């Protein structure tokens, strides 16, 4: 009976003729056991599993490499067997030049052209199965088989070089055959495994994923058949929740094919800390068992046995303990196929669980709670290595990378009751869903154990404000200080190249962090935020007004983000009177369009307006915390649709009017709030307090956006210097494209 296998990843060679070969019998280089092998010649056609480790995917495929690795783990029992290497496959492929023509035809087909793919792939499979295995190759296989027992029942398993890799899962594409008996049948099924590289599903999958059929090769694993009482799958991390401390065991009677094929629902055991914490026992009406003469069959299970567990709790715990050894060996959570026979468990495969979102490396066994940095910045896409490494080097708190995204570890702050309250409050103000998620984590018994308070958290809303005077001159001073620092950076970096540039940047990163941690700047930011919280809380309490600060902060001064939007309205005002420029911009695709504008009536004015905007805001872009993202200055066409929308949808002078309208609304709201407060008992005191906070919020809330503007301005200086260095590497033929450095971390660069 055929069983479905798993395929992951990709290899790297074109099919070609492999000459010479053979096998040898001697001692295993790894263990000293009697085994096949003895020579590491690349043309060697048969390797004993004990000769193999997980580094040899190109020789024995993903499944073979993992089985070899498993066989080296103390206490893990793997059925004896051998691998027919990819050299044998390449030799077979070279026997039929017509296959190469078929692959050319396949590569030109659309993945949705199922009929053509079905026809061509079937033709290639027939050709491969029709090729007589050369005598020396057949002899090598049969000699290896004799060491297992010439008439021993075997599993003949496909092992592609694109299979069971750490980061890719191409599941269910090639074939495995169970309970194959005798040399003739083994050789026939080896050919079938080779041919299964070109099943319709495998071909279509590679087509859809842009994988050249010639870059994937097929090895074959032949192992002694195991006839288990029970079999199934162990996940050393919960594949649903991602919890690395919880393992799940799926179990059924007979061969594991009953579970893989969906014939039965499995028993499911959940194991944590050496204990079964949950289990669901299924009604297992059928099983797959081996036939004495070879092959498999479905059989009915006695009614009284159907709802009995396939494993005891003790066996499930023992299996998970074995799984933890395997996980430790491979260094990541594993999806493990297992069988239970009279004297214990046999492991017949282990592969990475590729569906788990990665977690930061911490090197301990403690629970950790992480908050995404990107979500708070409305940037959920993964960052390239240069991007996240630069952020890690310049951030004020430790940043942990996982899946190309950055996270802050908030575990310790959640563990302290005082800091927990402050953290939940401040994060909840920004995003209530984050607060809800953190509270859900805290509700898990013991997940975040409490520790003594280390100090106060953020003062609760309505408490004492940050220690800073309500003085607009403070914001002016901070902005001037930031501009001076950035100008110095631009001046000093110009002459730096090579190692001197990177030494300079490391010093610049320290200055970057010093600027970010400026106490006066932090006080100004917090003063605006705390005044906002105070107003929202108190005005809801006193007047029933929800989110009153939203209106009271309209058109607040020194808001660089608001100024950026209004300035683009001013650009539209310059362009609007010139229809020729508007028409030209509607067809712009080339990033060099600014140079073409001067040829048009009004083009010089339009170009100068756009250039002036880019001089002030050209370092911004979508996802700007990733330094590798194209900036507006680098890709000015990004702004063209917004400019044209402003031309169409707004009248001249819209920026000034919108700002004034916002200021007027804020002023009217202030007057309304204060008059209503004065009409209340103790109203003068309430109104005076509210007035102080309104003045405070309008003084400082606009500055809240400025530190990020400063960060992004500095990032653009860093980026331009790094790209100039990358251009030198391109000229030296070290890199094909300067943007290739985006895939290096700063340290690697």
TrEMBL record:
Keywords: ATP-binding, Nucleotide-binding, Pyruvate. The keyword Membrane does not apply. InterPro entries: ATP_grasp_subdomain_1, PEP_Utilizing_Enz, PPDK_AMP/ATP-bd. Residues 448-467 are annotated as: Disordered. GO terms for molecular function: ATP binding; kinase activity. The keyword Metal-binding does not apply. Coiled coil: none annotated. Residues 58-356 form the Pyruvate phosphate dikinase AMP/ATP-binding domain. It comes from the Bacteria. It holds the Pfam family PPDK_N. PANTHER family: PHOSPHOENOLPYRUVATE SYNTHASE-RELATED (PTHR43615), PPDK_N DOMAIN-CONTAINING PROTEIN (PTHR43615:SF1). This is Putative phosphoenolpyruvate synthase.
């Amino acid at each position: 009976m055929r069983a479905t296998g798993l395929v992951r990843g990709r290899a790297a060679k074109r099919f070609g003729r492999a000459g010479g070969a053979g096998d040898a019998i001697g001692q295993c280089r790894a263990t000293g056991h009697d085994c096949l092998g003895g020579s590491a010649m690349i043309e060697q056609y048969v390797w004993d599993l004990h000769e193999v480790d997980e580094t040899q995917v190109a020789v024995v495929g993903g499944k073979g490499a993992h089985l070899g690795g498993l066989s080296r783990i103390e206490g893990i029992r793997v059925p004896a067997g051998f691998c027919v290497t990819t050299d044998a496959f390449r030799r077979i492929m070279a026997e039929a030049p017509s296959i190469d023509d078929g692959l050319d035809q396949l590569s030109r087909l659309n993945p949705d052209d199922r009929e053509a793919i079905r026809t061509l792939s079937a033709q290639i499979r027939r050709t491969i199965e029709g090729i007589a295995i050369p005598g020396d190759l057949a002899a090598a296989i049969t000699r290896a088989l004799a060491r297992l027992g010439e008439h021993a029942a075997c599993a003949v398993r496909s092992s592609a070089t694109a299979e069971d890799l750490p980061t890719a899962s191409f599941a269910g594409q090639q074939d495995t055959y169970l309970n194959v008996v005798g040399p003739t049948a083994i050789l026939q099924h080896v050919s079938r495994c080779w041919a299964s590289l070109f099943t319709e599903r495998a071909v279509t999958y590679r087509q859809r994923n842009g994988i050249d059929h010639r870059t994937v090769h097929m090895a074959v694993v032949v192992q002694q058949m195991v006839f288990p009482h029970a079999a199934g799958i162990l996940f050393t991390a919960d594949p649903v929740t991602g919890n690395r401390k919880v393992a799940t065991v799926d179990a059924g009677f007979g061969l594991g094919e009953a579970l893989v094929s969906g014939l039965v629902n499995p028993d499911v055991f959940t194991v944590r800390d050496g204990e079964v914490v949950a289990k669901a026992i299924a009604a297992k009406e059928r099983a797959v068992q081996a036939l004495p003469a070879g092959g498999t069959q479905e059989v009915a299970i006695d009614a009284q046995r159907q709802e009995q567990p396939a494993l005891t709790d003790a066996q499930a715990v023992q299996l998970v303990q074995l799984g933890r050894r395997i996980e430790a060996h491979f260094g990541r959570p594993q999806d493990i196929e297992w069988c239970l026979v009279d004297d214990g468990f046999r492991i017949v495969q282990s592969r990475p669980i590729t569906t788990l979102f990665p977690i930061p490396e911490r090197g301990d066994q403690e629970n950790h709670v992480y908050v995404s940095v990107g979500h708070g910045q409305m940037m959920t896409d993964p960052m390239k290595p240069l991007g996240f490494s630069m952020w890690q080097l310049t951030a004020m708190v430790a940043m942990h990378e996982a899946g190309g995204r950055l996270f802050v570890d908030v575990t310790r702050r959640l563990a302290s009751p005082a800091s927990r309250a402050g953290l939940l409050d401040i994060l909840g103000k920004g995003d209530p869903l984050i607060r809800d998620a953190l509270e859900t984590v805290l509700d898990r018994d013991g997940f975040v154990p409490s520790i003594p308070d280390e100090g106060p958290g953020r003062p609760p809303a309505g408490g004492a404000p940050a220690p800073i005077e309500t003085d607009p001159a403070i914001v002016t001073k901070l902005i001037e200080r930031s501009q001076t620092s950035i100008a110095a950076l631009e001046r000093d970096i110009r002459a730096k190249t090579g190692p001197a540039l990177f030494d300079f940047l490391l010093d610049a990163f320290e200055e970057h962090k010093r600027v970010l941690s400026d106490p006066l700047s932090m006080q100004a930011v917090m003063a605006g935020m705390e005044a906002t919280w105070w107003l929202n809380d108190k005005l809801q309490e006193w007047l029933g007004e929800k989110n009153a600060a939203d209106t009271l902060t309209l058109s607040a001064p020194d808001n660089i983000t608001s100024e950026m939007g209004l300035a683009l309205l001013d650009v539209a005002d310059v362009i609007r009177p010139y229809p020729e420029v508007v028409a030209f911009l509607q067809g712009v695709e080339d990033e060099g369009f600014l140079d073409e504008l001067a040829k048009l009536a009004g083009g010089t004015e339009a170009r100068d307006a756009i250039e002036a905007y880019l001089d002030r805001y050209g370092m911004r872009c979508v996802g700007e915390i990733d330094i590798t993202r194209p900036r507006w200055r680098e890709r000015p066409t990004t702004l063209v649709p917004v400019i044209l929308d402003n031309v169409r949808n707004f009248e001249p002078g819209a920026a000034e009017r919108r700002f004034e309208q916002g200021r007027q609304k804020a002023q009217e709201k202030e007057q309304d709030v204060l008059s209503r407060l004065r009409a209340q008992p103790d109203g003068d005191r309430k109104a005076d307090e509210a007035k102080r906070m309104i003045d405070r919020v309008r003084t400082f809330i606009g500055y809240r956006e400025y530190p990020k503007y400063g960060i992004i301005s500095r990032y653009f200086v860093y980026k331009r210097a790094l790209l100039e260095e990358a251009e030198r590497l391109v000229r030296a033929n070290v890199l094909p494209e300067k943007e290739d450095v985006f895939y290096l971390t700063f340290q690697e660069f």
